[in-house]
């Protein structure tokens, strides 16, 4: 009889250990304010006031931007980069993060009641993660996507978004298309529109992360997506020349946008990102050659071309997109992988995603500009919103750590 209480005590102890381990891994995520242009304010469980670079805000916080203003935010554990555009009101309904063994998952719910946000999810989400942007007309489900969403509708730049209308109807919105307010069917975006959105997302990625690798990856992916659409429209005979020309124009536009984004920062923050800009400038020729080759592969395969035709055209595109022999060689070295990735089928946007996953940008040279983004140096004030956010921030700033 004495053994029964002992067994009960043992199993209770085991259950408490398991429960403690699971709950210890769950925490509130955070939205790190990296850059504020113009006027913006916040309100939430942790307080309220003018928004400034250096704040770390959690779930339940609402941010409002004024006319001619924008805010760049980095969510390291909750989906990457997001920009709140002018005249916007956005609430972070949910920012949760959980460790899952060697991996992790998160839940992010952003509620845009006024204005728009631009999100750039550089890495595809794990199956257990969920990222949603609620707009006045419905909810955009994000996996690995760059988009603008809000009161102005939904504009998907790369990837694919499942948009659920308030009436429950679901619409797939692929890269390069816009779902206007009041419409249930996406329309094709113009090259000027896609390039404009890409410029905003590229600049936001630089200011939010300061990472040369992420900026280069973003530019190569955007240029590939935009050039692939142009090359598909041009037909297989003109795909290579079109992809090369469009890629060069788009990359130059994006490099300019990145430099302008750096210039809008205060001097101390500008120093943080300038190394990433320098690294980007050293890789422009390679990014152009790779994006042109990848775009051509996706376009030719989507138009019914053979792998051999795609290979030949991609080589021509690489030659046309860059004057640097090393850049052309690097681009041609990945064409076989791009062809294999494109043959998985699906829409042009899906092909571009698959190709991008298999042919990432050349790793940038080692240097401070490629390290994980440090906290902003202009203001290190942290605004705890929940207890676990406060405890983690205290641990990170403790002299013993």
Task: Count every beta strand, where a strand is a DSSP E run of 2 or more residues.
Answer: 19
Query: What portion of residues belong to β-strands?
Result: 25-35%
- Main β-sheet description: 10 strands, mixed
Which secondary-structure class do the elements indicate? alpha+beta
For the termini, the CA-CA separation is 50 Å
User: What's the number of domains?
Assistant: 2
Give the quaternary arrangement of the chains: single chain
Choose one word for the global shape: globular
Order of helices and strands: HEEEEEEEEEEEEEEEEEEEHHHHHHHHHH
Total number of helices: 11
Low-confidence runs (pLDDT<50, min 5 residues)?
7-24, 362-401
Rg to the nearest angstrom? 23 Å
Mean of all residue-level pLDDT scores: 85
Provide the helix percentage. Answer: 40-55%
Please give a structural write-up.
This protein is an alpha+beta fold and 401 residues long. It has 2 domains: 26-189, Jelly Rolls; 193-370, no CATH class. It is built from 11 helices and 19 strands. The chain has helices spanning 3-25, 191-209, 212-234, 239-263, 267-282, 284-302, 307-321, 325-332, 335-342, 348-358, 387-397, and strands at 26-28, 31-37, 40-44, 47-50, 56-57, 62-65, 70-75, 80-84, 89-100, 103-114, 116-120, 130-135, 138-142, 146-150, 153-158, 160-165, 170-174, 177-179, 187-188. Strands 1, 3, 4, 6, 9, 10, 12, 13, 16 and 17 form a 10-stranded mixed β-sheet that branches. The protein has a 9-stranded antiparallel β-sheet with strand order 5-2-7-8-11-14-15-18-19. Strand 12 and strand 13 form a beta hairpin. The N and C termini lie far apart (50 Å). Residues 7-24 and 362-401 have low confidence and may be disordered.
């Amino acid at each position: 009889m004495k053994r029964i209480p002992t067994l009960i005590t043992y199993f209770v102890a085991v259950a408490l250990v398991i429960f403690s381990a699971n709950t210890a891994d769950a925490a509130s995520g955070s939205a790190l304010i990296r850059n504020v242009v113009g006027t913006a304010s916040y309100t939430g469980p942790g307080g309220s006031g003018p928004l400034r670079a250096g704040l770390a805000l959690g779930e339940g916080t609402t941010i409002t931007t004024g006319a001619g203003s924008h805010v760049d935010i980095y969510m390291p554990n909750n989906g990457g980069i997001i920009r709140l555009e002018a005249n916007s009101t956005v609430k972070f309904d949910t920012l949760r993060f959980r460790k899952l063994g060697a991996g992790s998952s998160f839940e992010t719910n952003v509620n845009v009641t006024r204005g728009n946000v631009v999100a750039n999810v550089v890495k595809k989400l794990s199956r257990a993660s969920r990222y949603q942007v609620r707009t006045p007309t419905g909810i955009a489900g994000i996996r690995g996507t760059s988009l603008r969403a809000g009161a102005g509708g939904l504009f998907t730049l790369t990837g694919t978004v499942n948009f659920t209308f308030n009436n429950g109807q679901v619409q797939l919105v692929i890269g390069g298309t816009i779902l206007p307010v009041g419409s249930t069917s996406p329309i094709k975006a113009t090259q000027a529109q896609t390039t404009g959105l890409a410029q905003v997302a590229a600049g936001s990625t630089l200011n939010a992360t300061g990472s040369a690798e992420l900026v280069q990856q973003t530019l190569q992916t955007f240029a590939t997506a935009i050039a692939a659409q142009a090359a598909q429209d041009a037909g297989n005979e003109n795909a290579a020349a079109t992809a090369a020309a469009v890629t060069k124009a788009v990359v130059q536009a994006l490099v300019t946008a990145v430099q302008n984004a750096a210039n809008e920062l205060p001097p101390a923050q500008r120093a943080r990102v300038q190394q990433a800009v320098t690294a980007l400038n050293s890789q422009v020729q390679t990014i152009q050659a790779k994006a042109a080759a990848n775009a051509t592969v996706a376009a030719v395969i989507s138009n019914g071309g053979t792998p051999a035709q795609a290979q030949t055209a991609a080589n021509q595109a690489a030659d046309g997109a860059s004057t640097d022999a090393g850049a052309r060689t690097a681009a041609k070295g990945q064409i076989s992988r791009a062809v294999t990735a494109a043959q998985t089928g699906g829409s042009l946007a899906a092909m571009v995603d698959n190709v991008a996953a298999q042919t990432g940008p050349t790793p940038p040279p080692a240097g401070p500009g490629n390290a994980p983004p440090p906290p902003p140096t202009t203001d290190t004030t942290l605004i705890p919103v929940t207890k676990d956010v406060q405890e983690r921030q205290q641990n990170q700033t403790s002299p013993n750590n």
